[in-house]
Predict the 3D structure of the following.
Amino acid sequence: MSDRRSVALSGKELVMQPDEIIVTKTDLSGKITYGNRTFFKFAGYTEKECIGVQHNIVRHPDMPRTVFKAAWDTIQDGREIFAYVNNRSKNGDFYWVLAHMTPSRDKSGNVVGYHSNRRAPDKAIIKNSIIPLYDHLLKIERSAASPKDGLDAAYTDLKNMLATKKQTFNEFTLSLGG
Ligand SMILES: Cc1cc2nc3c(=O)[nH]c(=O)nc-3n(C[C@H](O)[C@H](O)[C@H](O)COP(=O)(O)O)c2cc1C
């Protein structure tokens, strides 16, 4: 999306309220098929601009690719994932969410797409646990010789961290509280 990348980050945070929930659904390739009103409010796009478009339309450049790899690996394996995500609005603002992503199935159990609900994250968790971790992963991703090497190295680092803690990614996310 050229218009998205041409808009500079504003550094302004949009804060989700505890009674708000952002919902989107995608097809199997990650193209948005549905968004609720709260999604359009935070993303700053109209429904027309989003439907049929890849969900990375709200990707924030400071998000480590490792987190999206963990998310896709998990949902493509038919499982759910909980993850903190920093998103970018159309005008360059940002908003943090605690996302739950899960496969959607038809009556026969076939995965037909994906679904994500996001709630307001706890501010202290973002500041004290998530930003330091994501900055660490980003640094690894960006210091490698190639994007692929960076992703591999950061993903290995994340897996090692979880192994040391004896936690799955979801256990880690949910153990932070909030
Ligand atoms: C149901 C669902 C919801 C998603 N929600 C977001 C989201 O809110 N923000 C985001 O950056 N990526 C989200 N993604 C992941 C994107 O598809 C994409 O992998 C990510 O933005 C990284 O973009 P990139 O692959 O172009 O680097 C979602 C994917 C699915 C399947």
Remarks:
- The two ends are 33 Å apart (CA to CA).
